[in-house]
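Today's session is about reading a structure prediction critically. Students often jump straight to the picture, but the first step is always the sequence itself: look for stretches that repeat, for charged clusters, for runs of hydrophobic residues. Only then move on to the predicted structure, which in these notes is written as discrete structure tokens rather than atom positions. Here is the chain we will use throughout the hour.
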Amino acid sequence: MAGGRRIAALVLLAGVFVMEGYDIAAMGLAVPRLHEPLGLAPTSFGWVFSALLIGLGLGGALIAPLGDRFGRRPLIAFGCLAVAAATLATATATSIPAFLVWRFLAGIGFGACLPNVSALSAEIAPARMRATIMAVVSAGIPLGIALAGIFAPEVVAAAGWHGLFIVPGVLAAVLAAALGYLLQPGPPEPSGAAVAHRSRLPQLDLIRGVWLLPFVVFAAILSLNAMNLYYFSSWLPTVLPLADFTIDEAARVSGVVQLAGIAIGVAASLCIDRWRPGLTLLLMFGAMAVSFAVIGLTAPDPLRWRLLLMVGVGGASAGGMALPALCAYLFPPRLLSSAVGLGVLVARLGAIAGPPVGEAMLDGGASAQTFIVFGAVPAALCALVCLMLPAALKVRPRQEGAAA
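Below is the predicted structure for this chain, in token form.
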């Protein structure tokens, strides 16, 4: 791919992540605003949040790996089209079952598309900057969440709560057309030993033999971090008003912490490329756990909480950027879409648990401090799993050396 076309492709691929981030945030931002027009209580939306994640996991495990065999372009373009249709339909929902169905279908589209976006960004990036470029591309997720939160008051003023879904739905349709035109057809080009070892079901290679340890470590960290990411992205706009933030202030804080996540994620990915991946992620997740614990031990203070949430919630978003980038060092190109896709499915076990856990805590009358301090548990577990990363990172070089 020529230089200009490569840059355009990376920009549009980053746009897919921006659209995903905006779409993820839309439901959480809409929930506090649905009680009056539709008579739907915020605490009835726990499984609506999870429906997106269930669909994302199924699409990632069952559909996304087709990109390793048939090419990235159709999976990305048709995935974006599916997201566009389901997200625009969400704006017409008036009941919990309708929200459940449309969010599930949007998740299927995301699951088919996003692992191939990550894999393609790795394939067209220069090798020495692979993790950093993957992280910059996937920085679209926290950027999209941030934009949704920061501009939610204006979008709602202009188009009601429906506008929160119309914006990402239209963006998804535009991206589907642009990427369908720009991207090259055909599957990834294997070479050397990769040809001989190409499998009809590459997912199976990840759960047996030498690739099991890297996949288990990757999926465990991804799952625990996803629990925090969706726990907070779903409920933070609802929780912060319990600590005397207004609804609009809570929305903007939810956006601002994502901007911090972009900075943390880029810095972490640079360290993955040029320093020690295991220690980098250990320090990041350790700082997250400390920040959530401090909030739990202190009275609400707008400035202090903002700063601590930038480290904690921003760190969860940064993990969503850095972990797919780490995947490029754990697995060969022939397994990238499958690793990210199957990892997404396993990670949904944590992510799906996040919104219902938050719903149960709110139903139980948890304070804002209690709700936030819970985030220290998954963050601390992520830090512990990171202790196994050095061993997992040795597998790919050893296998490539043996094949040579």
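Discussion point for the tutorial: The radius of gyration is 20 Å.
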